[in-house]
Design goal:
With 121 residues, the protein is mainly α. The chain contains 5 helices and no strands. Helix 3 runs antiparallel to helix 4, helix 3 packs parallel to helix 5 and helix 4 runs antiparallel to helix 5. It is globular and about 55 Å long.
């Protein structure tokens, strides 16, 4: 086991159960992000992936990343992380955070469309 793996395991073991779950969810989010960045032929229109009735914040982020593959993940990272923090640290209900994430992704998509228009249109 590498030094980084040992350090991560030691830190993980020192966390409360709730923090462990949060860390696992964040790791899943990062893994999905890396996976999504590996796509080559990126659609320019949002994909229609329906929102499940019950969904975790991490699953919502994964769904939205898959729905909007054309968006720059680095531009979304700060706002997405802030929403995750609202949920995990401040206890904002998942449904409220997911609603806000939907708005954030849509806004980034609309901004991207506006930026791609020729001047004067």
């Amino acid at each position: 086991m590498s030094g980084e793996s040992k350090k991560l395991l030691r830190l993980f073991r020192g966390l409360s159960e709730a923090r462990r779950q949060a860390l696992l969810e964040y790791a899943a989010f990062l893994a999905a992000r890396d996976e999504a960045e590996g796509l080559s032929a990126v659609p320019q229109e949002p994909l229609s992936i329906p929102r499940p009735e019950k969904e975790s914040v991490v699953k919502a982020i994964q769904r939205l990343m898959a729905s909007y593959p054309m968006l720059d993940r680095n531009k979304l990272l700060h706002e997405t992380s802030a929403q995750m923090t609202r949920h995990l640290v401040h206890g904002v209900p998942a449904i409220e955070v997911i609603d806000e994430l939907e708005i954030i992704f849509r806004r980034h998509y609309e901004t991207r469309l506006e930026e791609s228009l020729p001047p004067g249109q």
